[in-house]
Amino acid sequence: MNDPQIVAMIQDALASVAPNRKADFAAIKLDQTIESLGLDSIATMEMVGAIEDKVSSTFPDEELAKVQTLGDLAKLIRSAGA
Amino acid sequence: MLPKFLTVAQAIAEVGRYYPEHDMVFQDLAGKETAFTFVELERETAVRATALFDLGLAKGDRFGMVVIEPEDFVLTFLAALRSGIVPVPLYPPMSFASLDAYHERTAKVLASAEARVVFASTRLQNVLWSLVDAVPSLERLLPIESLRGLTTRGTLPAIAPSDVAFLQYTSGSTADPKGVVVTQGSLIANAKGIIGESLHLDPEKNEKGIHWLPLYHDMGLIGFVIAPLVNGCGSVHLPTMRFIKKPSIWMDAMHRHRGTATFAPNFAYALAMKRVTPEDLAGWDLSCLRVLGCGAEPIHPETMRQFADLFATHSKLPRNAIMPAYGMAEATLAIALKRCDDMMRTVIVDAETFQQTGTVSDPVEDRPASEYVSCGAPFSGHEVSAFDEQGNLLPEGREGELWHRGPSVAAGYFRNPTATAEAFRADGWLRTGDLGFVLDREVFVTGRLKDLIILNGRNVHPQAVEWEIADLDGVRKGNVVAFSVPGESSEQLVVVLETRDGADSDAVTVAVKAKVQKELAITVADVVCLGAGDLPKTSSGKLQRRKTRQQYLEGALGAEGSRTFGATASRVTLARHVAKSLWSRAKAAVL
User: Fold this and answer.
1) Domains: count for chain A
2) Pick from B244, B245, B517: CB nearest A35
3) What interface predicted TM-score (ipTM) does this complex get?
4) How many CB pairs under 8 A join A and B?
5) Residues of chain B with C-beta less than 8 angstroms from the C-beta of A52
6) Which of B89, B214, B468, B501 has the fewest other C-beta atoms within 10 Å?
7) Quick check: B455 and A58 CB within 8 A?
8) Fold of the B453-559 domain
9) How many CA atoms, within 13 angstroms, populate the side-chain half-sphere of residue B541?
């Protein structure tokens, strides 16, 4: 999966979690932090769940705990074989 | 027929004689389920209790638990209840949040409890090690997994109803943690009220509770570990994080296990509705689900009605399953619950009269109305009444602070006489800090006297937010107020602050949101930047949180008032809209 494909996957997940903020997520970049997305902790985990569904995998909690940026999340997505 | 157990310890030891095949089922993070029959549960908890003594812990000693997997958590917690060693459940660190604030809070709680040992999931060990240095009483950090697979079983001590069962730490501020002392007797009294008088779970029909609630919180721990067990009923425990990631596991488990009862905060019902697919709905038969409890945060009747409509139409959910609930850790868990076969009841009142006089009166055409949800009557042997600020009992239909009295009231806060004296009165009344009224003996909660913020069922002390922001660049030190306002399915956090001369409000707003997100994993919905001296203060210069909130909701904050109106206008309009539609509904009598 290349970067634009992963960005699109994250955007899809974000849109499903916060449909009314779709415009905010149009220009997300892999080097930005998760917290800069402005999601609360529940919505953040919802987004992760939506991505896990897409790649049919469960990310280990200890790996998730280390995720700071969307790029870190991209690495997890790739390691799931996507 | 079950005997009347006097303690939870006795219930765990003996319930297997009456219902040997009933069980507790634990789902792990991967979705795999393991069942323990009540006979196996008796054996496993006795072995684990023996192991706790073998570690040198004695009856009355405290130990912390930071455990992710429901199986390890519940087996160890119940073992402690049989041993008289006192567990202190703690929440695990959250993903994507800074560990500093977590460490500070956890260390304060462990120090307050004077815990000697902490059991934690192996994968959390390296994150928690520094606690041993930070907490003077703490001798050891042990992996919870070390209690698995043991076989030695020793003699367990006698446990009395007055013995401390566990400490439930509440939202108290970081500086002053408050650990509710829950006794074996108050657990039994509350469990009897919940199951016997309200839910009516029948062990003869193998009725059972299923939930994904965090086990370090009273609603999951008492509502689904203790209450079904002491009444002979089975339970299924799903990991909280699995539900958040994949909400469909909740109703899916209800369907597969033929669940009878479940509970969750309001936001979870909105989340489950948002994520459900037509295939899910068509595939589930929820005709078994008699109790759909809603509590731990303000209940939006509209969310619950929508949920009942959707799942009744497609998945055979009984429409009267919705059960609004009111409770708090200081009352062990439940204070009032709807009776299980009734429909959810609400009252609609004239909003202005209620706000200004605190009196319930019929709505008036073309004027705003407010709707309040009944949480049912208190259990037998318990009382709930509203009191005014001078401590005078108010008649029915008048808003005041709700006070609660009866055998479920806990024994105070652990080694905190000041906080105990404030909440637990000598005459037996517990001051709940919640505002509400009583009508036809039923309890209606309308707001809070205390400034507690509840976000997605999680209690947040406003000071915790304010402290994070106090020292930010551009903020006038200490001139920060945090509070919550009603949001779509939960509450929303608002921060109002004064900026220094020349500070860039946009930059301060971004910094505030980032800091709170990072340290507390909470999203700030709105930041309002005011000039020096614009925050409402008392004559002695103390910040006034409630007045600030009121002005925010009215769009009247700051020197010019109207300049903050943009942020609140939509909410005010929405409130008017809701009030109008409520009025139409009342008129059409479709409630």
Assistant:
1) 1
2) B517
3) 0.84
4) 63
5) 245-246
6) B501
7) no
8) GMP Synthetase; Chain A, domain 3 (3.30.300)
9) 3
